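#struct-pred
JK: can someone run the complex with iron/sulfur cluster? inputs below
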Amino acid sequence: MELPEAVSVSHLNLYLTCSLKYRFQHVDRLPRLFRAAGMVFGSAIHKALEWLHKERKAGRNPPLDLLLRTFEADWHAQCLDEDIRFKDGDDPEKLILKGKELLSEYYRLPAGRVKDAELFFQIPLVNHATGEVLGVPLRGVIDLIEEDDVIGELKTSLKSWSLADLPDNLQLTAYSYAYEVLFGRPTKDLKVINLVRTKNPKIETLTTGREKRDYERLFYLAKEFLRGIRAGVFIPNRGCWMCKDCEYDQDCREWTGNEEEGGEKDARQRLPAGSRELQARAAHESASRTRR
Ligand code: SF4
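RT: done, structure tokens with the ligand placed:
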């Protein structure tokens, strides 16, 4: 099976949590019938904070009101083209209010000087212990870089994180590795800034660090991820935390295994029945839009 152009940590995490969902999303590229409201919420918060950090990087301090309007505009823009699925007890008004409360609190926090925001990287992934270079580059975006070599990773979640969640966090490892490659020196601190969407919204910051052996671990995980894809290994992980909001639940239920690469069947025939229905429906909707 064809390898991806690059290894991104979000793809790697997705594969490790549910490789079948990875296949549906990134190999088969199935259209999704809905999007979870929590994803839309997180994305709108990220967009608003990206804007704030870029303003601060340029030496400006924009008013809070503009930050809140940026969030709300992004929320509405995302809701235009997709069916958004809300959890019980949630609705758009409640989520917009929660988002504004969290952003207001973030805005008032003492902040380090912003050196960069949403920094894209695509770099070779090298195993320092052996000198081996991974066949495809590592790709990602660092949310926030502050002075004194501090990296900030923004999260939105429904619960607090603990320090025990940090050592195995691959995003932090990848960003720390990328920082060393890009700037030629190690990070001083890696901060997780968690905007917690509880009844009383709050912001929590946890700090950690990384060592060379963490980079080695990332290298081996990425290498096995590529091997899994090349071999066509995609297995459902029913019961994992992603199942409750999974856009491919029906395809997953109808899945009957992965065909061998190079088999005689047409690629479309290798998809589960639900997937073919979705693709047919998407093609139909696309054709309808074109006709309109
Ligand atoms: S429903 Fe769960 S197991 Fe199935 S593809 Fe989605 S995340 Fe994976």
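RT: quick notes.
The pocket of iron/sulfur cluster is lined by residues 18, 20-21, 236-238, 240, 242-243, 246, 248-249, 252 (CB under 6 Å).
DSSP finds nine helices and eight strands in the chain.
JK: thanks, will look after standup
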